[in-house]
Write a structure and sequence with these properties.
five-stranded parallel beta sheet; six-stranded antiparallel beta sheet; 12 helices; alpha/beta
């Protein structure tokens, strides 16, 4: 376990900070440092030390983070929001040369996971069943409706609501224009997979473990409501959709459990996710499993689907964050050792050639 950990965009992630603190105490000590844009954020007041930083979109954001790492002798940086993942992925090497690990996948993987069209194409090319997805305007001449229309790169279900499912060409055109004008993003038209929705957490880098599947229970929705987790179902606490959905440990046959876990591990490996992630899937009435999204460095709060599944697997929340930290640090150390070996070999080869 690293001595000092930096959690970015700490905000309300009090439980995450406390879990890292507990893990550090149990493994020999260390401090949890946080940074945020708001001095009143709850996590700021439970961390061992806190720093105010600009938005991650600011030109000097990463410089501020590197300065904090130097001041606090940070061994591991834990990004917590989707907006930062690609930024930190691209900057991994600049932290690595300073002896600092970052709990994030490679730039290629992070970019793939943030691009739903590329994710689909990559998974299908690697033999993983995924919903057929097209960029609006490039649809094949013969395609079946309904389709699910959503933004190309938005996260947190932004741009998804009950009107996302289109049943006519006119509805599709209207939805595409809505996404382009409202979010400034390209629109995707995705094959709509009717069926049950599951989430499977996967952890590891070499030897992988898939947690028990979580199922999204839509039974509390009104009759005829679209059974998807749109922005209202996720975030609008005053909406019927928020109160009509809940994530539960799936009560399923062992064969189906194994099938969902295998599909999730296949997707995780195909995209080369590092450390931890969550795979979202749909199960049709005929028993076919489709991957609908892969979330590298997924939401890690104590009440998240990932942490809930880990608990069902027998891993407590402090144990979970400790294991993720160990995976990220060991991955960085392994890569650093490999780089040193290659450098030594090149030096020896050059010396032999000159002699």
């Amino acid at each position: 376990m690293p001595c000092n950990v930096l959690i970015t965009a700490a905000s309300r992630r009090v439980a995450l900070v406390q879990a890292f603190q507990a893990a550090l105490r149990a493994s020999g000590g260390g401090r949890v440092i946080v940074c945020d844009i708001n001095p009143l954020s709850p996590a700021v007041h439970v961390a061992d030390r806190a720093y105010l930083v600009p938005l991650s979109s600011a030109p000097d954001y990463l410089d501020e983070i590197r300065t904090i790492c130097e001041l606090e002798a940070i061994s591991l940086v834990v990004p917590t929001i989707d907006d930062e993942l690609e930024l930190f992925a691209r900057a991994r090497e600049s932290f690595a040369v300073r002896g600092i690990g970052v709990a994030v996948s490679s730039p290629e993987t992070t970019a793939l996971c943030n691009d739903k069209l590329a994710t689909c194409a990559h998974l299908r090319a690697h033999g993983v069943a995924a919903a057929a997805t097209y960029l609006a305007g490039t649809l094949p001449e013969r395609i079946s409706l309904p389709l699910f229309v959503k933004p190309l790169r938005m996260d947190a279900s932004i741009g998804i609501d009950e009107k996302s499912l289109v049943r006519t060409t006119q509805q599709m055109m209207e939805r595409v224009l809505y996404i382009q004008r409202t979010f400034g993003d390209a629109a995707l038209a995705e094959e709509y997979i009717e069926g049950r929705e599951f989430y499977v957490g996967v952890m590891g880098n070499g030897e992988l473990v898939a947690f028990p599947p979580i199922e999204m229970d839509f039974s509390g929705l009104k009759e005829g409501s679209l059974k998807v987790m749109d922005s209202s179902a996720k975030f609008d606490e005053n909406s019927d959709r928020f109160h009509g959905t809940k994530a539960v440990i799936a009560e399923i046959e062992p064969e189906l459990k194994a099938k969902l876990q295998k599909a999730s591990i296949d997707a995780y490996r195909a995209l080369r996710v590092c450390d931890y992630g969550r795979v979202d899937l749909r199960l049709t009435e005929t028993g076919e499993v489709y991957v609908i999204e892969v979330n590298a460095s997924c939401y890690l709060e104590e009440q998240s689907e990932f942490a809930t599944a880990a608990a069902a697997h027998g891993i407590s929340y402090p144990e979970l964050v400790e294991r993720i930290a160990e995976l990220a640090v060991e991955r960085w150390k392994h890569r650093s050792r490999a780089q040193k070996r290659r450098k030594k070999a090149r030096t020896a080869a050059a010396a032999a050639a000159s002699g």
